[in-house]
Amino acid sequence: MGATTRALFLSCFHGGGGSEVTRRLALRPRYPSMPRRPKGAAAAGGGGGRGGGDLEAAGVAGNEEEEKVAMFSVSGMTCAACAGSVEKAVKRLPGIHDAAVDVLGGRAQVIFYPAFVSENRIIEAIEDVGFEAKLIDEEVMEKNILLCRLHIKGMACKYCTSTVEFVLQTSPGVQRASVALATEEAEIRYDRRIVSATQLIQAVEETGFEAILLTTGEDRSRIDLKMDGVLDERSLMMVESSVQALPGVENVKFDTELNKVTVLYKPDQTGPRDLIEVIKSATSGLVNASIYLEADGRDQHRYGEIKRYRQSFLWSLIFSIPIFLTSMVFMYIPWLKAGLEKKVFNMMSTGELLRWILSSPVQFVIGRKFYAGAYKAMCRGSPNMDVLIALGTNTAYFYSVYSVLRAATSDNYMSTDFFETSSMLISFILLGKYLEILAKGKTSEAIAKLMDLAPETATLLMYDHEGNLVGENEIDSRFIQKNDVIKVIPGGKVASDGFVIWGQSHVNESMITGESRPVAKRKGDTVIGGTVNENGVLHVRATFVGSESALAQIVRLVESAQMAKAPVQKFADQISRVFVPLVILFSLLTWLAWFAAGRLHSYPNWWIPPSMDSFQLALQFGISVMVIACPCALGLATPTAVMVATGVGASHGVLIKGGQALESAQKVDCIVFDKTGTLTIGKPVVVDTRLLKNMVLREFYDYAAATEINSEHPLAKAIVEHAKKLHPEENYIWPEARDFISVTGHGVKAEVGDKSVIVGNKSFMLSSDIDIPLEASEILMEEEEKARTGIIVAMDQEVAGIISVSDPIKQNAREVISYLKSMNVESIMVTGDNWGTANAIGKEVGIEKIIAEAKPEQKAEMVKELQLSGRTVAMVGDGINDSPALVSADVSLAIGAGTDVAIEAADIVLMKSNLEDVITAIDLSRKTFFRIRMNYVWALGYNVIGIPIAAGVLFPSTGFRLPPWVAGAAMAASSVSVVCWSLLLRYYKSPKIVGS
């Protein structure tokens, strides 16, 4: 992997270099992007295509100087059809390069050529279809749109997440909100001009849940510091004034409850070390500060929650075991039975009194969280699991209290208590929650492993004012600041993203980029934090630190993917909305049915246990139904599997952007491959030159290179690089090229010295009135048969020679295509290159269906045609010219070493740039959705089978009934089993293809 490719990889995470292009694909169009220019548009630009029209990326990039991006607010849209109308209206205008409409955000993003259409004309077009439009300053808008994350305590089931999500989504200024039960987190995209993170927290807390701010969306210039020491009002004032006085500090905020200070600052002016040192100096050493990590805060909360549930379960067990023994076991031991049945007052026995005393702490102290949760849920008008548990245990407990008190006031009433039902039920539910939290904590192990790639310490080099090295100091890697110089020894990890200022070595970047071989590094080369220095000492100047680093961006992408919901989860959402009310109603009907049957004597007396009457039997059935039907497992079925799958994918170098991408990928039956950079290496090299005029080879290449030096096209770079080899000078200056013109997909032309030079493909020559000699045509045919691209060089309207360029096929490309065929996935190659080269490449890799000489918009049209024929289409590409097709496809996969715009447009990023990872992405998605389907079977199976049994369907024929505490154990087991079934994905192994 070369320095240019690595720079592109870094830029895709840092947002540099191509940030404007990246923003263009922030909104997905509902129709294929059709980049087009009006006829007659000037063809000037930085790049051009020639024989390899598939590599016209530079041609597109070259035209960007004429393009403009504008954002419009569109009011009045209510559905996807409205957005489609706006998009169509805009795209019908001349000079529109692309348009995308966001119906939820009420905005439209348009890329256009100002020479042919204006912002006012676009507004008129939108208003003509019945909507109001207004131009927005995109930079101001993007600056004020933030993404914050909240940790939400107290969510028990899908009802809870739906309630929180609805409240957040309907809050003013919120563009999107997503709440995940598995992680107990919410991700909110909001406009800070309208609403603040504090107001979002208040909105959540008004629903009865506790919310803790994890990030505010200002992470690139934000740090949380934990303060230890003497903290009084005076010291806090000293800290605030001292920190605020530092250059670059924009805001200081204290959280006295957590002893935390949050600082917003400019990373190029100050950093963590400066802030910590100022706090220590301002308080004369009485207060020390350290970095307050959000991950640590989340882990502390999870460990605290595990500890609380474990303690609650153990205390509940201490009380519940004696209750169970006195109720179910000791009654069969004669001498113990006599003691337990001894009357204390009238007909109230010792055993009943003892069980009453022991069950009360379990019901009201240990089980108080269920009361609190049920109360909040009822206040919200959305009954959840806590309501069912509270109803079930309270019914059992208070009926038992009634029965015991009646026995205490009667001389002949024989009481029957269910104290063991309420206490054992609470115990089993606490055990289930304890095991569930333990299991859920393992779903994010992949993220933890990614974060562990960063070294704990770094060696900081210190310089004097004259720039002389005066010493070195070992520091915590989290304290690295921008522009620090870090020393990396052989075998050590690079502590932050940056560039080499001294030394040379080889760095193993496989854990980040997937590059299997160590990459040579010397002065000026970029390095990535978390990679391993193989040999030699390097001095690296830090450029991207903290949340700006590539590793942090990957972690953030995976976290966001885990928050994204799969469409299949709508199934669980729809069931959950009506499930709990229906269960409560069914429980009541069950009790009434059995009670009525008993009162009417419609069943034999042997159905009723000797110690029960019909009312008590019906009560047990009703409680069992209420408890076994809790929908916890249903709510965990999809998110836990998606969380594990996205984490596992990241560990395999496949970044999956959420549940939508996973669900679409498992349906794929057709994959469209770009050729250059996808099936091939993407680094063309000159392999042969055939001169048709009597001239010196170096002179020939001087004219060709002088013309191509202005182009960014890969073929142009190959020609220039080859020309450099013909000159011994290191910095040879090419002749000046005048009147340079680039024609995308065809070639370039310029005046070099006293000659008019044209470099490009055959059609470009013909359109320029240049005759192609028979010899040249034969050479071109020969090169096409060899899967090479023939580039014609003409001087003064005569063909001077043909340059043959070859792009080697990637390793295992043929094996990958063959394996996909065995998975019933058809492979299609689409390229802008000529038919001869395309057919040769297709034959070599085993692809039968080939589309050649296709422009970017034609690629998107072809994807659309496949979709209309009923196919689920995946597109694999790496360049700017692939982005329209990537956006149009059902699933888009971008090669990680490609351009940042392709990566931004993709649903799945193949970081290692290996074709094998296409198979991994599809196979992982299929296995994930197999788990999800099994989770639904598992979760619904408990309810479909368990509810009728709990309701007593087997009782008339077998006498079998399901005690409420057993029903509670089954309900708890369902949630644990669903999470554990998802966790098995952690052991996923990607398919091994022959030849790998």
TrEMBL record:
* Reactions the enzyme catalyzes: Cu(+)(in) + ATP + H2O = Cu(+)(out) + ADP + phosphate + H(+)
Translocase as a keyword of this entry, yes or no, is yes
Q: Where is the composition biased (Gly residues)?
A: 43-54
- Asked if the record carries the keyword NAD, the reply is no
Positions of the region Disordered? 30-57
Q: Which organism is it from?
A: Urochloa decumbens
Question: Which protein are we looking at?
Answer: P-type Cu(+) transporter
GO MF term set: ATP binding; metal ion binding; P-type monovalent copper transporter activity
